[in-house]
């Protein structure tokens, strides 16, 4: 079956530091891959997505590249801000549903 | 205008009670979902409805019963509440593109249920 594995958090960084959150997946077929973000007290929001191998999704300074050879979709940002503090979920699409990873909390301090 | 709205946002109740959570979306989407998020932030899909028809019904106790009166509404009724039902319940919606599932979900803000 499909599964998503994310690095455990929390990830604690200072403002302007470089961010990487690792995500690897197991899937049959050719799923689309997603990063969702959940800010404190809110629901999840789609951050970025990639629909096929070698695609790069990007939004708000975040990027992730769909790597079929390593079955990975790592999230990166060159310079994080305090406002990026949130829980980040990697996900892949099945036929009619999403499989989410367990989420990685990011804490950014000034 | 909130795209996916849930009520109530907070719900505190005693074990054994019955409660409902309501969800409405004004995006015109065909598919709606209920997810449960536990205290460790783990998200688990519970149900999915497409145009009022049940599509996904994961292994959820039959104390949980979804109801979709129309494609813009999906309510969740829970009977005989237990301590383990304490969680945040999220409603979400999505729209297929050219008949294909896109994986792009729009979530409500969540309903935090606490069972004492």
Q: Could you report the average pLDDT of chain B, rounded to the nearest whole number?
A: 92
Radius of gyration of chain B: 14 Å
Strand content of chain B: over 45%
Order of helices and strands of chain A: EEEEEEEEEEEE
Uncertain regions spanning at least 5 consecutive residues of chain B: none
The helix tally of chain A amounts to 0
Largest sheet descriptor of chain B: 7 strands, mixed
Average pLDDT number of chain A: 95
Helix content of chain B: under 10%
The geometry of chain B reads as globular
Question: Outline of this structure?
Answer:
The complex is a heterodimer of chains A (110) and B (116). With 110 residues, chain A is mostly beta strands.
Description:
The complex is a heterodimer of chains A (110) and B (116). By secondary structure, chain A is mostly beta strands. Chain A has strands at 3-6, 11-14, 19-21, 23-26, 33-38, 44-50, 56-59, 62-65, 75-77, 86-93, 98-100, 104-109. The radius of gyration of chain A is 13 Å and the shape is globular. In chain B, a hairpin with a 5-residue loop joins strand 4 (31-37) and strand 5 (43-50). In chain B, strands 2, 4, 5, 6, 9, 10 and 11 form a seven-stranded mixed sheet that branches. Chain B has a four-stranded antiparallel sheet with strand order 1-3-8-7, with no helix packed on it. Chain B is mainly beta and 116 residues long. Chain B is globular. The interface between A and B is medium-sized, with 25 and 20 residues.
């Amino acid at each position: 079956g499909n599964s998503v594995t994310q690095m455990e958090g929390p990830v604690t960084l200072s403002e302007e530091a470089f961010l990487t959150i690792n995500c690897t997946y197991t899937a049959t077929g050719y799923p689309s891959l997603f990063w969702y973000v959940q800010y404190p007290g809110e629901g999840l929001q789609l951050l970025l997505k990639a629909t096929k191998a070698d695609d790069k999704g990007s939004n708000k300074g975040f990027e992730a590249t769909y790597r079929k050879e390593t079955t990975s979709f790592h999230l990166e940002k060159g310079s994080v801000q305090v406002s990026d503090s949130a829980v980040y979920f990697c996900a892949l699409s099945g036929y009619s549903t999403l499989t989410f990873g367990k989420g990685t909390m990011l804490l950014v301090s000034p | 205008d909130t795209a996916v709205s849930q009520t109530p946002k907070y719900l505190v109740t005693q074990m054994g009670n019955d409660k409902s959570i309501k969800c409405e979306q004004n995006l015109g989407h065909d598919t709606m979902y209920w997810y449960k998020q536990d205290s460790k932030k783990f998200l688990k899909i519970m149900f999915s409805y497409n145009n009022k028809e049940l599509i996904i019904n994961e292994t959820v106790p039959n104390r949980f019963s979804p109801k979709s009166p129309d494609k813009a509404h999906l309510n969740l009724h829970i009977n005989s509440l237990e301590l383990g039902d304490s969680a945040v319940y999220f409603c979400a919606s999505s729209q297929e593109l050219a008949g294909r599932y896109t994986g792009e979900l729009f979530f409500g803000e969540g309903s935090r249920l606490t069972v004492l």
